[in-house]
Amino acid sequence: MIKEKVVVISVLLIAVIVVSFVISGCSFLGNGNREYKEFANNYFNIMKEIKTEWKDCNIYSPVRLISIEGDALLYRVIKDGEQKGYFTVADINGEISIPEATFSGYDKLIENPKNKYYVPPFGFYNKTEFITNFSNFKFNSNFGKAVEASTTSLSNLIYVPTSYGKTEYSSFHSMNKVLNVPEYYNYFLDAGCAPASGAMLISFYDREILPNLYSGTLPITNLGATVKGNVENFIDNLANNYMYTNPIYGASTDNIMSGLDCYFRDKGYNNYYPACRSSYADFSNLILNRNPAVLTFICGVNSNGENLYHSVLGLGIMNVRYSGCSCIVYTNLPSSTGEQYIDIDLIYNFIYMCV
Questions:
Q1: pLDDT score recorded for residue 217
Q2: Where are the domains of the chain?
Q3: Per-residue b or e along 122-132, where b marks 16 or more CB atoms closer than 10 Å to that residue's CB
Q4: What sign for the dihedral angle of Cα 125, 126, 130, 136?
Q5: Are 99 and 88 spatial neighbours (Cβ–Cβ below 8 Å)?
Q6: Helix axis angle, 253-266 relative to 193-208, nearest 10°?
């Protein structure tokens, strides 16, 4: 892949080989995997004190997933026999991390298609496509990644009132996120993750920050859409007329940026332009200024060893003791509703608007 020409591919179309096993009980967690269990317990015990959705919940025997590096486990959070979300624990760049989490609903394995297997974050794959070797797995005992926003600031950000942000902080947890961000899902386009994420970003600014970015006002969500309405037509417009999305390969970074640039200019905002960064410190500063971004992350590798990518709408950051930092995102995938959390080491880049 050439830098700035990386193709963003919808997760649901990625062909990667993964094997996954459902194990009853925790007997498979031998000496080599005890760190995973301890890491999971620490994360869960912290989060159930923070998130009211997990109060009085429990976690049971995990589902074992085989990931690209090391091992991976999916823990279901249960209360009175009903699932209240889940989280995954996996090796990310040599450290045990939480690559994916959500605090409501069922995990995607509940309705797992026949002969399909799941690898975090956000992907079902055919088992015959990839073979993963764990013989060289080594655990890095450094729990967490203490990454904070740098003192450098992003220049020329769109001013968003303080009321659009939310902050939570304790000695073991911090969270900042942008409020009132629309949540849209890509129901009809193949490889349409970039325009769906762009639609959320534009709709956010249109609602109260930059009027007339859209003729009228788009709804806050299109969850459960079965026919094309205003949101779906808007996503189509961005895909076909601005980002020139390929139905197989998606939209490149350059096309996402040029598409947003042209759209803002077409609506009379000639002084607004997109910028691209890749560091978590910069993304953190963006969120602290209450600006969302089209965030592209690494979601797997193909049979040639090349990274595969998926675009989402980045709207927040969270840091939890033991598990480190995560980006809070809307995935635009109907199978991943609500706020999702992805590890910062999976960030490829993010695109945001300046003035």
A1: 93
A2: 11-126, 162-354
A3: bbbbeeeebeb
A4: positive
A5: yes
A6: 30
